[in-house]
Amino acid sequence: MVVLAIFALQTFIMLRIVCLLLLLPCISFGQDEPIEIKALTEKIDFDGQLNESFWPEMTSFSTVQHLPFNGEKPSEGEAIYLTYDKDYLYLAAKIEGQNIQAPSKKRDEFSLRPDWLGIILDGYNDDENGLGFFTTPSATRTDFTVFEDAVGEFPVNLDWNTYWDVKTKRFDDHWTVEMRIPFSSLQFQENNGIAEMGLIVWRAIASKNETDTWPLIANEWGDWSNFKPSMARQIRLRNIKSSKPIYVTPYALAGLDRVVTSQSPFEAETGTQMAVGADVKYNVTSNLTLDLSVNTDFAQVEVDDAQVNLDRFSLFFPEKRQFFQERAAIFDLRVGGPNRIFYSRRIGIDDDGNLEKIMGGARLTGRIGNYDIGVINMATRHDNWSLKNNFSIIRARKKVLNANSYIGIIGTNKTNFKGENNSVYALDGTFRLRGNHLLQMRWAQSFTNGFENNPLSLKPTRFILNLEKVQFNGFNYDLAIGRRGEDYNPELGFENRTNFTSIFAILGYGWQSKPESKILQQSFRMFNFSFLNNDSMLDETSNMGLQYRVEWKSRFSYYIFSYLRRERLFESVSLLDDFIIQDGLYNINVWGTGFGTPSARALSYNLNLRAGDLFSSKFFQIENNIEWVVFQDLGVGLFYNYNPIFKNGWTSDEIIHVHLARLKFLYTLSTKLSLSGFLQATSDGNVGLGNIRFRYNPREGVDLFLVYNNVTELDRLFIQQEIQQSIPEQVLIAKLTYTFRI
After folding, report:
1. Same domain flag for 198 and 62
2. From CA 147, how far away is CA 483, in angstroms rounded?
């Protein structure tokens, strides 16, 4: 009864706030007149040096500090220019520095260790999405997309890549850069040869933990404030025409594999792998891109980081495959936590994580008029090339009322050619109300063989209503109420619970410290969420907790949290391999703390500690993460997670030891040549994984990969005569891709 009373009170408070805010007028924020970018009339010697006499005449930008002293001048000098011709957008700069850092030549480097210069472009002027092009004194290329106006835990997609070039030159007290981005690689709207887009110029000085931006961006939205497309300043380019190249990228793959078919007696099979296929990218318009794929292959994609799962719900792993990256945020319709209507890893990867062969497919993304659109159709196949499953997704949304407000619809369908079919449709709306208040609504229904599929019933229905104040400084909140019916079955989505009604609330307060303080920022939040079973209306999970976090200007950080949780299991569940939790009601108390050292240093360390109840048992978790730049161009990452579980209390002699260890290294001989390694071992399943990847990338679109994978049974590693039997699978693959521009 107490839980139901709290649930009802929270619902009432949330609905009252929604009603009040809906009465407030929506606000549209005007833009200053766009800055005219001066066009280039002479030829650039693209060598990374600003030797041409015309550079001081080009449009220039002066950044200001974002952190640690917002609004102050950069601590070191700069001269930054932007210009363009009919084919390219150029960024050029001379960046002063007394302690220039550039420890890696990694493609898609994304850390605070090097010095940085880059731009973020909002080509659609939707104040929500952006394209980032960043480089370092080592001429690395890091490109990414920004989505949802840089709101969220990690609102950038580093797995997106496109075609562009950069060259740099390093000196004792400064470095210079010339960046060249083809207009065919940008997504923008052009009207009679005129294009207007949002621009953020971004600079970082690693040795001083300093970031600088143009224009000035306040730090009131948290760590990603300086990536927000809505804070960009408008620029204007004239007399440009969108090009429509066709990029054709065939690939050839050859390899050997060895698979253990029996352990006793030991038997193994050695086979060969050979495949050819192709990907095609075509810019239908400057803001509409078509991707085609035949016999799609992802052999070179990095493997997932293993996770220790001490809960009863499925783990979520991000999408890393390049084919699904173009404008991926269009399809990313979330319904609370990791749950979403469409989860692209459902295509080509089954529920057990095994790969399915993809016959091919098509993907169209971009904008038509005022509509963002996305269409995907793909098919998987059996080994004999017969069709296995077909997957279709269609998405459309339109901006309404003001910036950051839109309504949309999405539909997904999975068919297995045996008469079995699963379809989902969803309606959604996101509305920016007054100031930083954001209201989100989602309504979805599924239709599946074997279910009642009544559109007037709540059984096949999923909905969520979310109200959030998106800011770091001052009071902020995140409130949500949702429901999933017992027949809702999104086979192309991700859901970690079934048949529930939920209410969720976070209340927080954050503040920036005064300039003279050594503390940069602090935040405090309290949270409460409840999940009720729809049949019994009993609480399955209720959780209340507190968290405090502080970050110093030196970039040291510390946090502490505690929560009380109540879990009701209606049936027994299995955690790990042989840890059975019986049905019943459990009261759980957990606390945790941790700290991190500045990630800009050559050696950084993060420690996370947790302890408390694990249903009827006790547990302790220690998580260590070390990042070490051993020397120029060699970086090593060490991760170790240890979880002792005391089955009958802290004094129990029966202890389950759960280990997860991970070693990563990257050696970049140049920006074109790299060798990376990934070794991972977990006691859950006694499995070890080794992955070594050699990459030669002479230019964007041309790659040679040599990939070696090795899966090992750990419980046999120390039995000398059975070492060869401890390898259920070995794979060695060579893959060559070569892109032609037509």
Report:
1. yes
2. 26
Question: Residue 186 has what DSSP assignment?
Answer: S
pTM of the complete model: 0.86
Between the CA of residue 430 and those of 438, 442, 468, 601, what are the distances in Å? 7, 9, 11, 40
Q: What is the 3-state secondary structure (H, E, C) of 526-544?
A: EEEEEEEECCCCCEEEEEE
Specify the amino acid at residue 521.
Q
Residue 438's beta-bridge partner residues? Answer: 432, 468
Convert the pLDDT of each residue in 424-439 to its tens digit.
999 999 998 887 899 9
How far is CA 328 from each of CA 255, 361, 733, rounded to the nearest angstrom? 31, 16, 28
Side chain identity, residue 546: L
C-alpha to C-alpha distance for 661 and 637, rounded to whole angstroms? 11
Exposure string for 55-72, b = 16+ CB within 10 A, e = fewer: beebebbebbbbbbebee
Helix (H) or strand (E) holding 441: strand 437-448
Mean pLDDT taken over the chain: 88
Q: Tell me the pLDDT band of 31, cut-offs 50, 70 and 90.
A: low
Q: Are residues 209 and 290 in the same domain?
A: no
Task: Tell me if 660 sits within 8 A of 648, measured CB to CB.
Answer: no
Asked if 40 and 133 sit in the same domain, the reply is yes
Assess whether pLDDT exceeds 60 at residue 6: no
CA-to-CA separations, 475 to 13, 17, 220, 302, 575, in angstroms, rounded:
16, 15, 11, 40, 38
Residue 1 lies in a domain: no
Residues 256 and 127 occupy one common structural domain: no
Same domain, yes or no, for 67 and 94?
Answer: yes
**How far apart, in whole angstroms, are the C-alpha atoms of residue 253 and residue 686?**
31
Owning domain of residue 160: 31-237
For residue 83, what are its two tokens? 């210009």
What is the total count of domains within the chain? 2
Sign of the CA dihedral with 396 first, then 399, 401, and 402 last: positive
Q: Residue with structure tokens 């029966």?
A: 654
Among 447, 433, 440, 494, smallest CA distance to 463 is for 440
**Confidence at residue 328, expressed as pLDDT on a 0 to 100 scale:** 87
Main-chain phi, psi angles of 721, to 5 degrees: -75, -10
Q: Which of 480, 108, 153, 147 is nearest to 316 (CA)?
A: 153
Containing H/E element for 605?
strand 603-614
C-alpha 238 chain-centroid distance: 34
